[in-house]
What we know:
The protein is mainly α and 40 residues long. It has one domain (1-40). Helix content is 35%, strand content 0%. It is built from two helices and no strands. The protein has helices spanning 2-7, 14-21.
Amino acid sequence: MEALAEKSPITNYALDKLRVLNGMYPDGQPEPGQLIKIVD
């Protein structure tokens, strides 16, 4: 999630927002092969 947050166009709290979008807040990580939502 950290690498995705760095590349995301979300300006504030990108990591937290990506985790919320994917139901992984506050500290979840996706499993290999798991589909996740991102912001382009």
